[in-house]
Amino acid sequence: MTAQATVAHGARGHLSFARTWSGGIGLVLTVSVLFIAIFGPFLAPHPPAALLGAPFQAPDSAFPLGTDILGRDVLSRVLCGGRTVVGYATIATAIAYVIGGSLGLIAGYTRSLVDPVVMRVMDVMLAFPPFLFLLVLTTGLGTGPYVLIIGVASIHVPGIVRIVRAATLEVKGRGFVEAAVARGERRSAVLRREIVPNITGTLVADAAPRLTISILLVASLNYLGLGLHPPAADWALMLSENRPGLTIQPWSVAVPGLLIVALTIGTNLLADAVARSRGTSIDRELIAR
Amino acid sequence: MTPRPILDVSGLCVRLANGTPVVEGVDLSLEPGRILGLVGESGSGKTTVALALLGYAKPGVRIAAGTVRVGDEQLVDRSERDLRRLRGVLVSYVPQDPGSALNPSARVGEQLADVLRTHSLPAGQDQITAALGRVQLPATREFIRRYPHQLSGGQQQRVAIATALVCGPSLVVMDEPTTGLDVVTQAGVLKEVQRLRRELGVAVVYVSHNLAVVQEVSDDVAVMYAGRIVETGPTAALLARPRHPYTRGLVASIPDFLERRQLRGISGVGVRIGAWPRGCAFAPRCEQKVPHCEENVPDLEAVPAGSLVRCTEWQRTPPVTSLPIQARLRQDAATPLLGIESLRAVHRSRAGDVVAVRDVSFSVAVGETVGLVGESGSGKTTIGRCIAGLHEPTAGSIKLNGGALAAQASKRPRAQRRQIQIVFQNPQDSLNPRRKILDEISRPARILRGLGRRAAEADAVNLLGQVQLPSSLAHRYPAELSGGERQRVAIARALAAGPSLLICDEITSALDVSVQATVLEVLRTLQAELGLSMLFISHDLAVVASMATRVLVLESGVVREQGDLERVLAAPQDQYTRRLITAAPRLTSDPSGLVPETAEASGPEHG
Q1: ipTM > 0.85 (yes/no)
Q2: pTM of the prediction?
Q3: What is the CATH number of the domain that holds A158?
Q4: Which residue of B has its CA nearest to A198?
């Protein structure tokens, strides 16, 4: 086939991805969970840590979702417990992209010694099992939100470096990048104007599963007691605290659990739809591999 | 006493699952021992027809109507089991890319034996020796044990042909079998096809986009456009006096290295599947259309020369005229612009260094076009990249206006970077998919000429006009443009810098021939207007010949011959050049067909 057989480009409208079936569901799920996480604390009927009733009370008019192991209002704790898990996961993923993305771009674009050095360091990092790494980190630095964020971000960095480097290498050889190099554009301009815009679709597609992994990691660490400590309200902590009452008062476990599930499914559907609709042909080629 | 046709296709229609037609009402007929050339540009449906001859349709399309008879068998609507039995024995297929058609993990002998065994035929040493002998490959023990990657491109294609012939089919369908090969290898394969049909009496349907190749190999030709046959008949007569305006346009688009003439592209772009107009599909691009052309699809009409043509106005189609290229603008041969001395360049890889360019020296004068011809791997692209500052030479010097050029573009002063601009091969890659056309074209003017945004954008709109594109394209993205339009935008972007040397690296090799002609003519006009020097790199001798005044022939990084184009073509001194010239396919012009255009019609043209 020659270039004449140009595939008509999809609609470039900003929200065209939402018009697809999966994109719409993803958008609704993500926005709903984020809304609860962000604005929930303002809507909570009770303070999340207040002991208000008997433990594991079934739902009634006073406590629509019942009470938890210490007799706190589950609804209030659900409304207040999203910020930490969603926030930490997002921040950790974002930090990982800033660091990993920069390293990947530099490693992929420069032909200097930076590339092999960066890549070998990443290989070493990849060799550690993530949980072992987090355990070592918390043992050394103690537990708490910062350690949590640094730990989760570090787990993502090597993978992001690899994918950004591969995408950069691929785009670097294309005519428009070479034309920019030949007209003497500064390195930063070549990266910013020519390369980054053409790999973002790939990154979006890659980011969604990473955010999911971050959420699960944050949730797992909180669950294991390596992140936040009681009495903080947190969906993952709620799962772990209320486990004993699973049969008596399932809502205290099911609601936070379902919210985490809804968020992970939603972000993945959404990211896939965005990558499909906004990705360039280059992105599509890269994603297809 | 015409023998009964071995192939008889009637009313063949192929549609997408949703009913959109891809191929419509195709009738073909072929006698044993004849070769039919099936010609068309991308999207014309030629490959779809080729596959339908084996009773096959790609996923997503289906044969909706019509019959395909090969020998005594009707192939449409047969069970997959029946078809498998017939394919290979009755009709077989040679695909475009032998590199991917041969099983990479099977030895040559196994590839052949596999086919024989599938059809329960004896697959002994004798059969394999005979099969290889048929395509003039050595049947040595060593060769039979080779894997496809240990063969050259030509050998791979011969093995693919041997595989297609091994069960003795009556009809072989070849889909662009020489497109990936260099011209010398191509010439060998074409001869092979000719010989095989003579010796074995096998009928061949030869699918190609290349009219010159089809002319060389075929007895009859069928030209396809938008899923229909628009003209068909005996090859020589049809090409000498094409009657369909599309065929005429194709013939006029083809550059010829011995009779250099101005090329006439076909305006517009081919219609896409699903966007066929109601009437004649070619009408939107046709210069001789009349109102009723847009109403009904014309029927095939008989032409005295023995062709059938799908045009009601065929009697008005003028003969293809040949307007020789006028004396080029005066060149200051005395003023060298670019001087290259003993250039050497190496490709580094894990497997070791490969010398791509060895000791190459030449110069380009002000206003001159120098052609670099060579096959893949000859180092021609690397030379262009060295000059553009994209590849660091290991030795030698490159001088511009007498001043040395740094190896890397980023180390060159702005004035030097401005003067050398490059246009790349692949129209898919040449523009940033995320930038609007206006942004893409105005950038060099801002970086290299220090223009402000407004001035640079005004300049860009101007340049769009110069490359004969509407200014409405300025706010589009590259994905909305066709390949030919993108290459013209890439030329405009190069011109935005105000260069004195333009490097064109295979800029038309991915384009259809009618689009190529348009791009080349745009470039020629611009060069004359702006007094540009050009380094024109191509594997296609005819394309280079239609642009250059001087030519360098490269082989494996070495300049085999260089000199004035006319001299090199008329009296090649080097063995390799001679082979290249003999092998290059030409659309040989019948003097009665190609009428020289009168001076009056061509208009005065002075450089």
Answers
A1: no
A2: 0.80
A3: 1.10.3720.10
A4: B434
